[in-house]
Amino acid sequence: xxxxxxxxxxxxxxxxxxxxxxxxxxxxxxxxxxxxxxxxxxxxxxxxxxxxxxxxxxxxxxxxxxxxxxxxxxxxxxxxxxxxxxxxxxxxxxxxxxxxxxxxxxxxxxxxxxxxxxxxxxxxxxxxxxxxxxxxxxxxxxxxxxxxxxxxxxxxxxxxxxxxxxxxxxxxxxxxxxxxxxxxxxxxxxxxxxxxxxxxxxxxxxxxxxxxxxxxxxxxxxxxxxxxxxxxxxxxxxxxxxxxxxxxxxxxxxxxxxxxxxxxxxxxxxxxxxxxxxxxxxxxxxxxxxxxxxxxxxxxxxxxxxxxxxxxxxxxxxxxxxxxxxxxxxxxxxxx
Length: 336
Fold this sequence. Notes:
Radius of gyration: 32 Å
Number of strands: 29
Number of domains: 2
Distance between the termini: 88 Å
Low-confidence stretches: 1-32
CATH topology of the largest domain: Immunoglobulin-like
Mean pLDDT: 85
Number of helices: 4
Helix content: 10-25%
Largest sheet: 6 strands, antiparallel
CATH class of the largest domain: Mainly Beta
Shape: elongated
CATH architecture of the largest domain: Sandwich
Strand content: 35-45%
């Protein structure tokens, strides 16, 4: 045992000296990549979001919810924060659907923009109406995205040059609106009335007598676009009465009302006839008629006035209506 111990001590000294003399580390090799490298053109909206206490959470930039949104005729979307990072750790990557950690190539960064939980309202356009298209603009170069209005709490992930301008551009019904995703500010192409809407209480008009009583009720609001009329003329907006038209018994089936001759909006000493269209009449007590839009092209500054009803049939043989009716309105600022 003593010899083993003595030999061990001496041998250890020799071995250490030999090891120091024979090691040759050579030149350092390239560092291991921090994760799978994403393509430099990567851009996708992904279900999920990074961990609330992970590395990405520590570099988030919060947005003003009143500014970081885009609203168009057929869509509405709001973002509440963005972040940039060189890599996504295993936890954040997994939460975003990547099987392993991922990293940006040299000179690039991973940019994340989060779709807010609370989204703005829309114009309730039918689902089969032609929708909007979206592009991510990276230093002015477009990258197509799948859908203009992703579901809440999804995350846009893109690889971009470090510090490059990034914007979301959505084209809907021939007009493009742009949101700067670095600052959370809308560009000058925003349609202001979508973001500063005005709406009023429900209006009711009753034309009674003359052999047929006409009943109309619904809310009034200012909008820049309608499905039937398209965009309002330059310098104007549409005051839209979203109503149901009902009639008592006594009229024939498939009867319609001439909107332009029957409805007038009066404001500021001016009279504005309704947009031309034939409005269907429905039997009193039925569920038909909701969603009938009566639109008036008016100055966007209109806030108070009167709507007048003087019924004129478009197709209703033998229809006899009452003398008409009127109702005043007030439009107040609403929340998008």
